[in-house]
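Need the bound structure for phosphoenolpyruvate, inputs here:
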Amino acid sequence: MRKKVIAGNWKMNNNLSGAVELISGIKNGLADFEPQADMIICPPYISLETAAALIKDTPIKLGAQNMYFEDSGAYTGEVSAEMLKSVGCEYVILGHSERRTIFNESDETINKKVKKALAGGLKPIFCIGETLEERESGVTNKVVEKQVRDGLQDISESDLANVIVAYEPVWAIGTGKTATPEQAQEVHEFIRNLIKELYSENAAQNLVIQYGGSVKPANAKELLSQNDIDGALVGGACLQPDSFLDIVKSS
Ligand code: PEP
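Answer from helper R.:
Posting the output first, comments after.
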């Protein structure tokens, strides 16, 4: 049985003191229960080092929200996998739909980032998902298949073991609209079958596939009880300790 993984994508929210406050709130909440799921927090870059110190000796793990695929050099504003490792990151979100749409990241760029993250010892949370227009025109599986094939191109089966896939329908991110558990399950099952075809039954069975898109305490339990939904990538609801922990408790 795959262990559930709940990750909080803080996006561009919280300055350093806000980050300290949110992490303290999560730590205080953890005094009351034993989490059954793995927990990852992904604050903005500026708070990563402080976050790493605050979560030391807790079950909370640390991730970044992006990185660049080069090692170093004249890439103003970017950070490398090695830099993220050096401040204590274990995970990195790659290919989030906001990166794809606002910052024009292509499947090819994302693939380079996934490879570089893995080579640098980081575990990518690799995001994929269709737009509303794509869903309404019936091409969801086709879109997701291309994102998986291109984004994971030349990734070996042993490296895939360190990848989490996050299925996030774009129309459900930050909109308050959630995919129904059945809609999400259907795509998750499709992704797992695709991984079986591209790798093996074993790789498919071990792959953690998170759902993301307006996950909140009120809908988490039903989503997380689906066969192929192994966790959640949470945006808005991870910014309050109680709602983040309520989602963890739903696992
Ligand atoms: C996300 O940022 O990955 C996300 C799913 O956001 P929200 O939960 O706010 O929809």
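Comments: The chain has one domain: 5-250. The longest strand covers residues 123-128.
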